[in-house]
Amino acid sequence: APERTLVLVKPDGVRRGLSGEILRRIEAKGYTLTAVELKNATPELLAQHYAEHEGKPFYAPLVEFMLSGPVLAVVAEGQGVIPGFRSLAGATDPTVAAPGTIRGDLGRDWGLKVQQNLVHGSDSPESAEREIALWFPTF
Ligand code: CMP
């Protein structure tokens, strides 16, 4: 089966009109967009998506942020796309993410309680399978 990852353009990215720029970078790298859908998250979906972060100090602000507006959910496909997209995204903290990356070029610290860092990308094949099933139940 082809390698697939789940990418989310988070509410900050959608709000700032960066969805096209982020999709452009994924395509320019050579990956294929297999599914793209604008969605409103729900507390139930986020509880599953972020199960590993439950109990951390940034969990509640993270969920609140992810509910603050629509999210662009994307399935991207290609050899090496899981680590490849995380490399395109850059480090979690946009202040120090390397220039050339999505977070490094387009993100910064907005002084809020959670990193508003524009994108999410699955971190392993197991996460990708689980997250694609959550965001695209009919995929
Ligand atoms: P992501 O890696 O997609 O999933 C977890 C998210 O939690 C992360 O992006 C950030 O948005 C946020 N996050 C992770 N670590 C911190 C932190 N130390 N402080 C605030 N937010 C964080």
UniProtKB/TrEMBL annotation:
It holds the Pfam family NDK. Its cofactor is Mg(2+). SUPFAM superfamilies: Nucleoside diphosphate kinase, NDK. The active site is at 120 (pros-phosphohistidine intermediate). This is Nucleoside diphosphate kinase. One of its GO terms (molecular function) is kinase activity. It catalyses: a 2'-deoxyribonucleoside 5'-diphosphate + ATP = a 2'-deoxyribonucleoside 5'-triphosphate + ADP; a ribonucleoside 5'-diphosphate + ATP = a ribonucleoside 5'-triphosphate + ADP. The keyword Metal-binding applies. The gene is ndk. It comes from Isoptericola halotolerans. It is found in: Cytoplasm. Keywords: ATP-binding, Cytoplasm, Kinase, Magnesium, Metal-binding, Nucleotide metabolism, Nucleotide-binding, Phosphoprotein, Transferase. It is an enzyme of class 2 (transferase). InterPro entries: NDK-like_dom (IPR034907), NDK-like_dom_sf (IPR036850), Nucleoside_diP_kinase (IPR001564), Nucleoside_diP_kinase_AS (IPR023005). Its EC number is 2.7.4.6. Homotetramer. Major role in the synthesis of nucleoside triphosphates other than ATP. The ATP gamma phosphate is transferred to the NDP beta phosphate via a ping-pong mechanism, using a phosphorylated active-site intermediate. The keyword Kinase applies.
